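Figure 6 in text form: structure in, sequence out.
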């Protein structure tokens, strides 16, 4: 039943009290006993009806005229913006408000605001789909112990003839979630080797092992290049992208937060694209709070790990 139909039903019920008094009992007490209401209730609505007519039979809002503890409209606007543009949940919104706006709110308060605005349910294509099997999450204890590397295939650029297809190479450290990103115009072993050499120059710690899928871009030349550098190389089982789960999940973040923001902007030059991607990489590593890291950035996680390791070495 809609709210409008419910209010109409209440109005008709209250009108029936007055008709019953006028046409049947001519006695307020008997009418009240018949409908199971108090005399005070009858006279309250009768006086409202005499003063305002049919509009007087409608329920009025019980909200206070002034709510000093209500969430400010500017904060609600920020919550709505993060929900609409990034599909963030209450926890991620809480992290962003505290880190970037120095606003402290509980997750339950944010959820109530979203529910009041009927924004507490995500679109169908953004909802979490639980796996049939539950996989145990793991994390390597030392930065650089394990890197996951993968390639994200970007859609052909519309409006550009001939159409170009770009490829985003991604490396993510299993321990700290620090990522290195780069765009290439071809997906082959030569570019894979170039990307790994680029990653090794940028990471502030040594790399012990790298994990990839079985794509041709990670073939024998790439494999032996890693071994020559003293870096282990492991292939995941075919058709098991979940084993590269951290890099796969980071690609989803790219789609939702980076590529969504540049949607409609035609960039047909890989050099310019890499400049934009570098800005996103810096934001991801140094400024973006991560739910999997309890609201910390990957760089903050790295600092904590290095501090822990230095303390351990000092006790040995």
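Output sequence:
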């Amino acid at each position: 039943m809609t709210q409008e139909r419910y209010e109409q039903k209440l109005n008709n019920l209250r009108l029936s009290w007055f008709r019953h008094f006028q046409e049947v009992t001519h006695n307020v007490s008997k009418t009240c006993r018949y409908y199971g209401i108090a005399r005070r209730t009858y006279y309250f609505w009768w006086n409202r009806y005499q003063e305002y007519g049919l509009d007087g039979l409608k329920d009025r809002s019980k909200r206070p005229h002034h709510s000093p503890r209500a969430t400010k409209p500017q904060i609600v606007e920020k919550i709505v913006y993060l929900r609409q543009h990034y599909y963030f949940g209450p926890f991620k919104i809480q992290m962003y408000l505290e880190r970037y706006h120095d606003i402290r709110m509980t997750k339950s308060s944010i959820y109530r605001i979203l529910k009041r605005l009927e924004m507490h349910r995500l679109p169908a294509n953004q909802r979490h789909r639980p796996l049939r099997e539950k996989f145990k999450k793991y994390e390597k204890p030392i930065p650089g112990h394990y890197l996951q590397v993968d390639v994200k295939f970007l859609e052909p650029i519309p409006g550009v003839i001939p159409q170009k297809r770009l490829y985003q190479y991604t490396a993510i450290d299993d321990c700290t979630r620090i990522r290195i990103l780069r765009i290439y115009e071809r997906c082959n072993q030569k570019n894979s080797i170039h990307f790994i050499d680029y990653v090794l120059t940028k990471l502030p710690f040594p790399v012990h092992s790298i994990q990839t899928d079985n794509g041709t871009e990670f073939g024998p030349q790439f494999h032996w290049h890693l071994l020559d550098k003293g870096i282990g190389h492991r292939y995941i089982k075919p058709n098991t992208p979940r084993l590269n789960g951290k890099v796969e999940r980071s690609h989803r973040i790219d789609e939702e937060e980076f590529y969504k923001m540049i949607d409609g902007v035609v960039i047909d030059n890989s050099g310019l694209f890499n400049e934009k991607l570098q800005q996103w990489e810096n934001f991801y590593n140094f400024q973006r709070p991560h739910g999997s890291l309890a609201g910390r950035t990957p760089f903050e996680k790295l600092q904590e790990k290095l501090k822990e390791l230095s303390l351990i070495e000092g006790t040995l």
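Caption detail: The chain has three domains: 3-57, 73-121, 147-311.
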